[in-house]
Amino acid sequence: MRNPDSGRVKVAIIGAGFGGLGMAYSLRKAGIDSIAILEKADDLGGTWRENTYPGCGCDVPSHFYSYSFEPHYPWTWRYAKQSQILEYQHHVARKYDLERHIRYRSEVTRADFDEARSLWVLQFKDGGTLEAESVVSAVGQLHQPAYPNIRGRESFRGKTFHSSHWDHDYPLEGKTVAVIGTGASAVQFVPEIAPRVKSLKLFQRSPGWTFPKVEKQFSRFERWLLDTFPIIHDLDRLRVFIICELLAAAYNGNRPLAWLVTSVSKLQARWQLRDPALRKKLRPDFPIGCKRILLTNLWLPALSRPNVEVVDDAIAEITPTGVRTADGKLREVDAIIYGTGFKATQFLTPMVVKGRGGRDLHEQWARGASAYFGMAVSGFPNFFVLYGPNTNVGSGSIIFMLEQQQNYLVRLMQQRDQRGWRSVELTEAAQSAYEQEMRTRSAGTTYAGDCQSWYKTADGINTNNWVGSMMEFRRRLAAPQMSDFRDGGATTATSPALAA
Fold first, then answer.
1. pTM of the predicted model as reported, rounded to 2 decimal places
2. How would you list the strands of the sheet with 322-325, edge to edge?
3. pLDDT tens for residues 221-231?
4. CATH for 153-221+256-338?
């Protein structure tokens, strides 16, 4: 694929992960073919391209973690592994002829709205530009690695890397390794590396709730049934959907369901942790769902291994030879692996986005990102976001949420064109009302609990998670409420470059 050059398209999509590919599919289904998918890397896949750490996989069953327009894929595992998820994305791109729209090595650094022409001007890292009538950011929430602010972090003389940039050339065998972080990534890679290393020091800021994972590889007979009778696959997808909705209800204020989920988690800990002292160290003091629940059967047994030490004392500093905790104890290690997640609340970082009147999107989001159903922001005409603020799901499939947004945005663009609008812009009243709804409803969920979570800003504002069911999200995005948007001005003749 060629690098970006001067030109114009009807829709520019930033990112070639699940969001970008699905958006391109929805646009093409609606007859819009003037599309450019701008991808910073040499391959598609987003977070599933970048995260290759041992044990990397999905914690949503594969039958539901897939597009509704391409559901019957021959998954090998009930919970798909990273490599097969990436293969699935390539399969979708090939089958639906999406790859011809992708421009690789095209990192967008800046987007400016030209009010006079109602066009967005995108600037690339290599100096190129592209103009677009509409821009859809599909960069997601989990792509900028987060490192802890620990004194002396740069002084360590051993090997260091983040889980999202795993160094597969570094031999862990026989090494003493420090792992900082106990989130979803660490839960997957620690059980994989613990048997290989000489000693593993796990530094825990706060424990997380775990839940049993019914993990299995499909047998040949099961695979034959699913391939021969697709309705079995569809029924299983529905089953998973219902279970996810019940879990979401537990997080969103249903106390009996929350008690049930918490009880199962406690039973798992009692069964898998025989040491009462370790069990106490790993018991959370916040409501389940406040942080992302850890779906695993392997995490707690791995922490019970004789070569694994769970350290819950705060880290005071990192020295050239190891990690020193607040009690003054220095643990010397050969390598430090950061399982500290992503800068999830810093949406669209580090891209600069300037809207109407030169207003800066990141300045507008300085106290917490907010967007209308995670998609639109007042002052930024024809600019949309997928998997934006308050669209992550504590339980469910983000692909389901993305598809609702993708279909909605196509309908919104069609409404704009039918009405003869030059641009479509969210009203300030609609944005204010929606933001207030998210803040009010978040207060009644477990996400408002007293825990440190990537769901929330430093001020405790839930900027990441949706506060209802997936069905509610689908219902409310069934058709655009055009009263929430305004006309950007009388239209001019559409140029050939912008035609569908």
1. 0.91
2. 315-318, 322-325, 330-332
3. 999 999 999 99
4. 3.50.50.60
